[in-house]
Structure formats: structure tokens, C-alpha cells
Amino acid sequence: MKDAVDIGDLPQGRAGLRVLVTSYRSNPHVGGQGVYVRELSAALLRQGCRVSVASGPPYPELEPGIALIRLPSLDLFEESNAMLALRWRHLASKADRGEWLAHNTGAFGEMTAFARRLRAYLAREGDRFDVVHDNQTLAFPMIAIARRMPLLTTLHHPIDIDRDYAIAGAESWWKRALVKRWHGFVQTQAATARRLPRFLCVSEASRRAYAERCGVDPARIAVAHNGIDHEAFHVDPAVERDPDLIVAMASADVPIKGLDVLVEALAKIAPERPGLRLRVIGTLREGPTKRMLERTGLSDRVEFRAGLTRTEIAHLFRRAGLFVSASRFEGFGFPPAEAMACGAPVVVSDGGALPEVAGDAGIVTPVGDAEALARAIAHVVDNRDIAHAMSLRGPEWARSAFVWDHHAQAAISLYHELIQARTGVRAAQ
């Protein structure tokens, strides 16, 4: 089994290495896909590569000097009536037909549609690039691309984990059926991954999950943690920390994010701590969290804030007396890493990569254990000396462990390996 990439032994990027970073969607403001594409491409550019990005909509925000290649999808989530979005010109495109049919029958077809468009683009323009670095598209056409040219795939975490939690949390048989239909692509992703040559994984936990759940040979998976934006997320001594303010982040009220566990834990300790309150970066919708807040009487002590900029999020992290992630699984976990960089003490579950992210700077509790989480939260908020020590350790750990240039160097090492392997095959032929 190949261990995590040793950053100290990596070669620097050679000037002129032509890298095409690909992503089926790259929303710069929601989720981690756009963040990953933006930061990876920028770090590759700093390492001396010539970088282009091919993406479907929403398109990423890129640094100057990085070319954006738009591969438009039908973008059916933005249509008021997706059923009526098909046009005569779309019938000539297998990608368009497949995307429309999947969306309107309750499935998610964007990844396969993007891979088909990418394969067609590279059939015309592939000679412009030395290597393709794909952001977990994992659709069957990527196998044909890997046969044509060097392909490295980033793995974040197996989506069947999300599917299993969503099925378990569904409240009726027909909702479970809808969840299964929507996540039909996970079998395709696993089958594709077993046939692709090389991977860069963002955590050791995610590498194990891909090996165990998808049958991917772990020897083909190298590990390098994501970086974070240290210019945006850093300590500011001028900002006064509020010891009674707990901050969490939940982009959606879904079981895998563990927001229900956090609310249950808060209910156990809030009566003895009248000043304690929780601010969640996200939107409160009808669902299990809202019902739990009403049942526990904590609605007036939990606030949801959506649409925050990175600057506003960083300021909130600097004010927080504690950041908590009770997620049941994370392939990496940007929020706790960014919170630590801002000096917030961090308590996380042992879901997936969160213990890797917290390192020795945070406190780790068992997944789904509201009692243990409550004890950990109380331990920090009731002990200012412990909280202060964690505020000092966190930024130091984040600065050393989460560096985008290190992640890019790991990728470049794998690019060389893939290119050399293909050169050797051609020489043998």
C-alpha cells in the first residue's frame, strides 16, 4: 500500500507542464467543488504549470492567467420547468439527451453528461494538454479519456455514504425510493473508479472508504490534505472572542451533517448556561432540525445565517468561543480547518477525516454520541485556560497541515508518474 505523499520529497513543477483541471460543476459559493477547483488551479499555477480549467455550470472563479473552458450543460436546476427545457438541437447530443432524461426521471445525470462532453472536447483538443486532473467526476467516459491521455482523479469521499444516511433518514417508503433513484450514479462511480489508473485523495479516511466501499486498490491512491486560504482565515488579535458563542456550519439539514446531534447536545447543557448560544452558517428549513429545536425549546438560542462571504465567515470564526462539527462523515472538512486557523477552539466527531483535520489541536468525540459531545462542549466553554490553549495550538497546526501548494506538489508528482508510465508504454510498443 502506498502511504500518504511525502511533501518533502516531491519535485517542483516544471515550467510549461500543461494541466487541464476538470469539474462537472464548480459553484464558487456553495459547497467545496468550486473552492477545490479555484485553489488547486491557483496552486498549480504558482508551481509553474500552465493551467486551464474545463467546467460545466456554475462556472468557477479563477485566478488571472488560468484559462476557463466552458462546457455548457442544460443546467436544468435553473429551469422553471425542466421537462420543457429540451430543444430540437439537443436531440443530436447524447450528453444532452441523457442529462434531460435522467433529471426528469429523478436521477442525477450531470456527471455522465459532463464526461461525454469532456471526452468529445479532448478528442478535438487533447493535444493541448499533458495531463488531465479531474475533480471526482467518476463517470464511464472518463475511462476512455484515461486510455487516451494521462488522467489523475481527486477523490473526496464516496457518495454512497451520503446516500445510506439519506435513506436511513427518509420518513416514508416513497422518499426512500426517491433517494435511491437520485443516487443511482454511485454504482457508476464505484465501477469507474476501479478502472481508472491513479488517484489523489484528500484524507486517509477517505482513501480507506474508497477501498472498502468501492473496491478501489488503495495502492493506487495517494493522500494529500486540502489546503485552506490563509490570507482569509487567520487570527486577528483585535477581534474579541465570545466564550458563549458556539459556531457550526451545515449547508443542508441532512443526516450526514449531524446537526441533530449538536442540537441534542446543546439541549443537555444549555439550562445551566443561560448565555450559551449556537450560530449555524446555513439555512433552517422544514425538517428534523427545526422540529428538534421546537421540541427542545432552543429556537431562541440558535440562529441560522446564510449567504455569508468568506470575510464574514472568518470574522465569525474569530469571535467564536467554540466551533463544533458533529458530522457523521467528512471526506475532509474545510470549516473546522478554517475555524482553527482563525483561533477558534474546535470539537469534532470522529466521522471520517475530522480527527485528521483536528489533529492534536482539537477534541474528538464519537459519532452520534450527543452525551459525549455535550461533555466536550461544556469542558471547553467552562474552562477558559483550556479554550485559550486550544486557540494557540489550532492556528499553528492549520498553517503547517493545510497548505494548497503542498497539495499541488503532490499532484505534480503524480502527473510525472502518469506521464512517465505512458511514455514507457509507448516506447515498449
Automatic annotation (TrEMBL):
Top-level taxon of the source organism: Bacteria
Residue span, Glycosyl transferase family domain: 241-395
Swiss-Prot/TrEMBL GO biological process terms: lipopolysaccharide biosynthetic process
GO molecular function, one term: glycosyltransferase activity
UniProtKB keywords: Transferase
InterPro entries: Glyco_trans_1, Glyco_trans_4-like_N
Residues in Glycosyltransferase subfamily 4-like N-terminal domain copies: 30-231
Name of the protein: Glycosyltransferase family 1 protein
Provenance organism: Marinicauda algicola
Phylogenetic placement of the source organism: Bacteria, Pseudomonadati, Pseudomonadota, Alphaproteobacteria, Maricaulales
